[in-house]
Amino acid sequence: MPGADGDVVIDNCKIDNVCYPFNSDAGNKKYGVTIKNTVLNGWTSFSDVHKFVTFESCTFGKGTGGYQYEYCRPYQETTFTGCEFNEGFVFDASETGDNNLAFNDCTYDGKDLSAGNGMEMFSYGGKNIKIDGEDANLVKNPVAKIGLTTFAKLEDAFAAAVDGDTITLLVDATPTLTSQRAITKASVIDLNGKTLTLTEDDLYFGTTTFKNGNIVVEPSVKARTAVFWMCENQTLTFDNVDITATGVTGTYLMGIYAGTGSAINILNGTNIIIDNDTVAD
User: Which of 12, 86, 169, 172 could cross-link to 61 by cystine, CB 3.0-4.6 Å?
Assistant: First the structure.
């Protein structure tokens, strides 16, 4: 739109069965683009060539016909207000440079876009992103998140967490951990239906709740001590978790290092299977 002599408005349309429902590589920095009340199915992408680009009450989904994309990659400052991103939609926020992306009152898969929902949409990462006014720090191919901050390694999330934080797994993870060390200060590790595999023993988790997923314990060497440790007056909780432990012959799965007042809570259908048919060398 290099010849535009005013702002462009696209309103109440459905754009489908094309590669790019909206694509602009040329424009005029004097004028902006507003797209509202519109369905955009496919690959939406535009260069930093407009005064502004805003989407209002739009729906982003998968293209049909020969164009099965469900993707958005903006290169300039863009605001999304009241927009719906369908399940499976991918948003590449890595190409906006120092420009800002703002998401206000948006949803992903019918639920509010928030720390608890839709972060997997940003699988390419990005910076200078605000979701309902809150900064979101996103990395490419995230493994875990704390609030609106995502991490490429679960170890990094463990290290960053403070008391009261919830770490949420976004994919199955096998972190590299160090025995005889405090692992994290996180209060909750939400497995989010994923599998956490632990290959070391002698791990100090302290007062932590694991919930909603699977834990596989596979020590890389023959374990000689507990896998999950806690100290005096600490509580380890497993809530709706399936734990499968192999290779722990001659040791125990959970233990208290010293003192009294500690507890282990097994809640809401948590299952523990210890299978020692195969023992690590």
Answer: 86
Structure tokens at 277: 């048919």
C-beta atoms surrounding 209 within 10 Å: 19
Tokens of 168: 């949420």
212, 191 Cβ separation under 8 angstroms: yes
pTM of the model: 0.81
The whole-chain average pLDDT of the chain stands at 89
Mean pLDDT of 116-128: 85
60: nearest Cα among 81, 37, 41, 32: 41
Contact between 280 and 250 (Cβ < 8 Å):
no
Backbone angles phi, psi at 239, to 5 degrees: -120, 110
Q: DSSP alpha helices (H): ranges in 121-230?
A: 154-160
Give the type of residue at 22: F
- Look up tokens 């979101």; give the residue: 136
Residue 168 phi/psi, 5° resolution? -115, 125
C-alpha–C-alpha distance, residues 205 and 217, integer Å = 14
Strand ranges in 99-194 using DSSP code E only, listed in sequence order: 101-104, 107-108, 111-112, 124-131, 134-140, 144-146, 149-151, 166-169, 181-182, 188-190
Tokens of 75: 């290169």
